Amino acid sequence: MDTRNDAYQPAFTPIAYSIEDAPQAVGVSRTRIFEAVRKNELSARKAGRSTIIESDELKRWVRSLPTRLPARSKVL
Q1: What is the pLDDT of residues 25-45, one digit of tens each?
Q2: Who is most buried in 5, 40, 62, 76, counting CB within 10 A?
């Protein structure tokens, strides 16, 4: 049995992420999460001294980001 922390898979889906875990869940940098919160693009909640972001809010924010269209092929 592998007992390393990186192999641990929670038996539940989180309803919120800490400000430290949110970047990994979404695939962006910690700076980008803080920037989105500062610009009111992403809502964060306070639980005492902890800052948390609801998983539905993270999904909403990701869906609000611009899509990148495939590059058009050049006709020569």
Answers
A1: 999 999 999 999 999 999 999
A2: 62
